[in-house]
Every structure is written in structure tokens, then in C-alpha cells.
Amino acid sequence: MKRVLLLDVGSTLTKALVWDRSSNQLLASAQAITSVKENVMLGVHQAIRGLHSPELPASPSWEDFDLRLGASSAAGGLRMVVCGLTENLTAKAGLEAAQGAGARVYGVFSGILSSDDVNAMAQKCPDIILFTGGTDGGEVKRVKNNAQVLTQYPGPRPPVVVACNQNAAPEIVALFSSHGFEVYRAQNVMPALEQLAGDSAREAIRGVFMRHITKAKGLEHLTERLNHPVVPTPYAVMKGLSCWHPDSVAVDVGGATTDVYSFADGRPTVTGLIPRGIRQPKLRRTVEGDLGIRESVSALKAAAGSKFSSVLFSEETFSSWSHDEVEQRLRAYEAKSVILPGDDLDRWLDERLSRLCIDLATRRHAGTLVTRDTPQGPVHFLYGKDLRDASRLIGTGGTFFAASRGAFAKNILKGALFTNDGSLRPKSPDLWVDPDYRLFAAGLLSLILPEEAGGLLEGLEPL
Fold first, then answer.
1. Rounded Cα gap, residues 303 and 148, in angstroms
2. C or N: which end of the chain has fewer Cβ atoms within 10 Å?
3. Fold of 78-212
4. Superfamily (CATH H level) for 3-75
């Protein structure tokens, strides 16, 4: 087993890499436009044919690779809704588990479910429902009530992963099964107060994705060609980051979302800072569905507020383009009529929009410092992860494929840095970029060859 093909099939682009095990070298990488509405395999085949290396045939085919692995975020990736009893406890624990599994969470429902909640849930067309609630050994009445209400779910019923109070779980699993749901049981995502235990739920979610979602997304022809089931792309990226370097942060800006990953304990970096709330996992992912540089550009504008105009419509803008030209291009992004940057205006906008996405997304991901006055003086609390001492910040994904290694990439990544405003983002990390998509590829390889996956990342270099 010498040559390894690693694929990432997205909604708009397919990426392909070839790694040679014997030489520990990345032989080639390529990308091609994916058409989810037509046939994703057209983009896959085109990306494979675009792999050029002296070590490969002129027009490679599937048979030229000894091991073939794939990830996908096609058609929106893994769509999920989360149910929990308490917004800041079990619902939040469920959200952490879902995002850690590579899902894009389209709604979090907490408290006592109503029929209106269930109808709103169905309108989001989730691929999976993650059902949580209660700590083990705690009160079971409310979580059972939520399960009963959820049986009113209208239309085709998605699989349900039950990761709630284990005292209530057997009865809830039986209830969902009797109402036509396909049910998967996992350990409680919060077995004790403020204690996260999402590994079991994450594995259950990935199992559902492997067995069902790839078929629903039209990827069954891809799975027939691979040596391992398809996994969600964000899960692969997160696994790749864990193969790289502790105390690292990764950012991935896309057309619709911005993902942030951290591989760090996140403990207080200074004395006198008191942790509060749920302690977050060392390896963590968040995804921001309103921050993107193409179809989500209007949502980005709303999220950024006045900063959007100040970043895009400066004197520098009008020295090269008119206000109308910029607005027209933004409308083309939202309409998905522009995918890859094609001229200087696209590249200029990509840099500024990407930096803005990263600025907002890393603020949401990183912990916050809150100071409260007391009779004994000010007390400083940490909510979330303190990432100020993170030693590496890396950009991965399509934006950085285009940015490569120049000042363009540096300017984008600087949007993630600490600004002394309460958001505990990295202060002075080394800046890196992943122009060949090695992070997702290393994560895929770690599923089969964990002891060799780090070799794929040895080619990364700081900016």
C-alpha cells in the first residue's frame, strides 16, 4: 500500500491529494468545481484527473491508488438540531458534541418542548436530531415529557441520537422506536453538573452519517470506491489538528460558514483568573453559519454591523472601484454566481471579507474575561477557553488555497489576534497556512494509519 488518495467533496469544490507512504511526501493536490444538484462524482473525477506528478500516470484513475479515503460537506454537510433541558447546560453540552462530530447545527431547542418547537425543528430539515437532557440519576419527568412531544414530529423522521439522563434513556429509546424513528443510544453528554462527556454521542453521530447521510446526499457512488466510510469534513479537519501541535488554533473560511478549531487546554494563563461555566474540551470546534464570503455575505453584513462598511468602503476601495461595483459583486456572491476569485476585485474582497469572518468567529470561539466588582475588590472570571498563549494559528480551506503564502494570508489571519477587549484570542502565535488542505487529509489518514498521519503535516511551514 504505497499511494493514498484523500478526497474532500464540498458543495462547490472537490479537493484531492495524493500522499506517498514510502517517501512520506505529498505528490500532488488539485481541486475542481462540484455540482451537488447534478452529480458530485463529476467534480470528483475531474479533481482526480487534475492530479499531476512524475510519480503518477498522466490521467490518474481510481485503480492507481492503493488506499482511498474521503470526507464530505456536500449539500450543507451534516445538518443537525439539538434538544436539551437547560440552555446553558445540557443543550450547550449537546451543541459541543454535535459540532465536535462535524455537524452544522441549525437549531438548539431548550426547556420544555412544545408542538410549535417540533414544527420549527422539522422546518429546518435536519439529517439527525441529538436528544439530550438531565444529569444521570437526576429528575426524569421533564426529559420524558420532551421525548413524548417530539414524537409529534411531522413528515419524514430523521434518526435520533439519544444522549440524555441514562435513567430515562431506555424508556425514551423505546418510545422513539415505537413512533417510527431510527434510534441510536449514546452516553449522556452531561452525566454530572458542568461535566462534558461528548465522545459517545460524537461517535454515534458519525455512525449515522456514515450509514445514512452519504446516501441521502447522493454520495453512494463515492462510498463504493473508498476503503473507509465517508466522514464529515469538519471532523476530519479537527482530527488533523490533533495530529499537529498542541496549543494551536485553526480557522477555515468558506462561502457559507466559518469554522474555528482549537487544540488547547484553555486554562487561565494568568493567576487570579477564576474559571466559570462548563469546561470546554481540549479539542473543540465551533461553526458560524452566518459568517461566509459568498452566499452568507448578507448575514455577515448584519453580524458585523458598522464594521462591514468601514472595512469594505474605505478610501482605498474607491481609488480602484466604485461603490456600485462592490455592491454588484457582493450580490453576485450571494446569488452563488461567483465561486472562485476571478479578478482583482474578487481577490481584494476575499481578503477583507475573510478577515472580517475570522475576527467575528474567533471572538465567538475564544473565552471571555468578565470583571465584577466586589467589596474585596475586582474579581476576574474566565468563561470558555483562554487561548492567549496559543503558539500556532493556521488558516486552512479554500480561502487559504488561493492566498497561499504571501502577505494576503497574513492579513487575513491577523483578524484572529488578541485586541485587549475581553476576548481571549491568541496574542502572538506563529502564523501558518495550509494551501494544500493537509489538515483534513491528515485527519482522514489518522482513521486508518494513526501513527503515520502526522507525516502529512511535516510539509507545513510558517509564514
1. 36
2. N
3. Rossmann fold (3.40.50)
4. ATPase, nucleotide binding domain (3.30.420.40)
